[in-house]
Amino acid sequence: MGSGSAWRSVARQLPLRLTVGAFILNSGLSKRAADQAAAEQMQQFAAGTYPALGAMDAQRFARLLSAGELAVAAALLLPVVPAAVAGGALTAFSLGTLGLYLRTPGMREEGGLRPTEQGIPLAKDVWMLGVGLSLLAEGGTRRRGPGPAAWYLVHH
After folding, report:
1. Alpha-carbon torsion 117, 125, 59, 31, what sign?
2. Less Cβ around it within 10 Å: N or C end of the chain?
3. In 10 A of CB 116, how many CB atoms?
4. How many Cα neighbours within 13 Å face the side chain of 119?
5. Rounded to the nearest 10 degrees, what angle do helices 58-77 and 83-103 cross at?
6. Model confidence, pTM
């Protein structure tokens, strides 16, 4: 791939990476200085869906969650990080938050996927999944070249 094509790819990704990266950076920074009560609340909420987290010290949980968010934000905000790596990190992170949405009682209306008022803050994270998958797709096609559909269109 020529350098012009690489720059076009970075330019296409930039709005997605900057907006989501800044959002997650802010979230990670806000958790960094969580007091004991806030740390316990975050941990208890997460442990309701992921029980293994309940055994962890609440302050340690908050610090690790903050560090994880800061790492995902850095992967998105640093253009030297390949799209597939940034997309993989964001996809994994968003699947974790969507797991909370899908498995926590009271987040969804009975028998469906529509969020309740309490579920909206987590349900909105579906956009992060879309961005993560888009970056994965972009990174995957850049390394391997055009997929089978592009080959078919060129040759038929």
Report:
1. negative
2. C
3. 13
4. 20
5. 140
6. 0.81
Cβ-count burial 50-84 (b if 16+ within 10 Å, e if not): eeebeeeebeebbbebbebbbebbbbbbeeebebb
What is the rounded CA–CA span in Å between residue 76 and residue 86?
Answer: 5
Of 60, 63, 68, 66, nearest to 29 by C-alpha is 66
pLDDT of residue 141: 67
Say if residues 144 and 136 touch (Cβ distance below 8 Å): no
Determine the average pLDDT of the residues in 57-81.
96
Decide: 49 and 100 in contact? Cβ < 8 Å. yes
Find, among 75, 77, 78, the residue nearest to 89 by Cα: 75
Nearest to 131 by CA among 81, 74, 92: 92
Phi and psi dihedrals of 104, rounded to 5?
Answer: -95, 120
How many other C-beta atoms can be found within 10 angstroms of the C-beta atom of residue 150?
Answer: 11
* DSSP for residue 53: G
| Structure confidence at residue 147 (pLDDT) | 40
Token pair of 130 as six digits: 């879309």
Q: Which helix (H) or strand (E) holds 7?
A: helix 3-32
